[in-house]
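In the design runs reported in the main text, the only information available to the sequence generator was the tokenized backbone. The following block is the verbatim input for one such run; it is reproduced so that readers can re-run the procedure and compare outputs position by position.
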């Protein structure tokens, strides 16, 4: 079994993520390629200085702009937004793998009296009139309904009929999101937006166990390497501890993952065998290690397993968006600051679109990090790029705090 130092383990993950050395991904095609590599990136509608999915891409994709993601989703149809790790964005080519999600959703929806009639009514209206939102679909009243996808926020209650029927058809896979206007979703028939072959193709996995292996392997690739432990990196994959053990054993026995030990950590890690050339580059010290300074998204794939980040980087990050203001240690929407191979702090920025100014509310440096001229100039360069990403013309730094 390969044995790594913590430095080598960090280098492997950072290089895999495209966060170390020169940019591996660029422009819209690079954004698509990164999502393909990660399998999925989490969607969250909160927009303080960019939405989570956009923030994930801006840290890795040179020249990334927010409209690129919209185009990949709603014009090129290379990506879709659907359930995976909560509500996520993933490649449309993976549509057949989620057929069991859609089958469960249809079985779930069949249990609500009167919903089928409303579904037929909605489908007929969309077929005749085009994409609709819950405000423009002419179905009134309320129905007793709740989503089979827990991220919808609807639980066993009467809800607006138009919204309920659209969300049910969306989780069924009959509808996809056509576009968004702010947070409002407009839906169209999947048959008009996705390749017909994708809609006809069955799940490539022979059974649920094979699908479980595919999903776990996908998450390992998203982070770079993971351990066989309960982890939020597996959120959305419903499996018990014994199932997880069986999946890791099956993946290792088939040669699809390889074990590795890291100094000072008893639990072994696993990485995908297809990433072994990268591992050999790390061991052979052949990596491009040119440092970059990046602001990471709160739900960034690299941060999915916070215990792993703490073990390898001694960096403890929590998203305080749901923490009461008087109990926050840092801020409402802070982003980890990565410089080269180290987390050096976190930053809270707010995009003031009215005045086209990116306001830096605070920068907190980690203990032992001295904000040298080199670090501060790197932060300033990244802030200029980040302000452009947020369509701001100026940057205003309000506070900086040492660790």
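Verbatim output:
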């Amino acid at each position: 079994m390969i044995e790594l130092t913590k430095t080598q383990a960090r280098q492997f993950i950072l290089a895999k993520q495209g966060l170390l050395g020169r940019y591996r991904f660029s422009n819209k095609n690079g954004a698509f390629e990164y999502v393909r590599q990660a399998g999925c990136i989490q969607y969250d509608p909160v927009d303080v200085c960019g939405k989570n999915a956009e923030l994930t891409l801006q840290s890795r994709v040179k020249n990334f702009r927010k409209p690129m993601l919209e185009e990949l989703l709603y014009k090129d149809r290379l990506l879709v937004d659907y359930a995976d790790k909560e509500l996520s964005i993933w490649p449309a080519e993976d549509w057949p793998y989620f057929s069991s999600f859609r089958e469960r959703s249809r079985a779930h929806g069949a249990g609500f009296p009167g919903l089928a009639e409303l579904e037929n009514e909605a489908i007929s209206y969309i077929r005749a009139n085009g994409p609709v939102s819950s405000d423009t679909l002419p179905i009134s009243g309320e129905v007793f309904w709740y989503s089979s996808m827990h991220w919808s926020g609807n639980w066993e209650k009467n809800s607006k009929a138009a919204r309920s029927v659209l969300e049910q058809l969306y989780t069924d896979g009959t509808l996809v999101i056509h576009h968004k206007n702010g947070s409002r979703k407009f839906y169209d028939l999947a048959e008009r937006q996705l390749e017909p072959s994708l809609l006809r193709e069955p799940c490539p996995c022979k059974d649920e166990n094979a699908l479980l292996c595919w999903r776990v392997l996908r998450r390992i690739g998203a982070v770079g390497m993971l351990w066989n432990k309960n982890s939020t990196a597996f959120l959305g994959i419903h499996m018990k501890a014994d199932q997880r053990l069986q999946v890791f054993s099956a993946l290792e026995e088939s040669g699809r993952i390889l074990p590795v030990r890291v100094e000072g950590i008893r639990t072994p890690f696993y990485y995908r065998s297809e990433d072994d050339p990268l591992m050999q580059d790390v061991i052979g010290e052949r990596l491009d290690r040119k440092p970059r300074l990046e602001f990471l998204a709160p739900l960034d794939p690299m941060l999915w397993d916070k215990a792993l980040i703490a073990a390898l980087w001694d960096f403890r990050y929590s998203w305080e968006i749901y923490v009461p203001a008087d109990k926050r240690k840092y801020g409402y929407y802070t982003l980890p600051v990565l410089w080269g191979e180290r987390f050096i702090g976190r930053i809270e920025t707010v995009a003031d679109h009215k005045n086209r100014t990116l306001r830096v509310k605070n920068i907190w440096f980690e203990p032992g990090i001295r904000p040298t001229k080199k670090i501060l100039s790197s932060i300033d360069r990244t802030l200029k790029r980040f302000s452009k990403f947020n369509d701001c013309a100026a940057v205003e730094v309000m506070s900086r705090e040492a660790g």
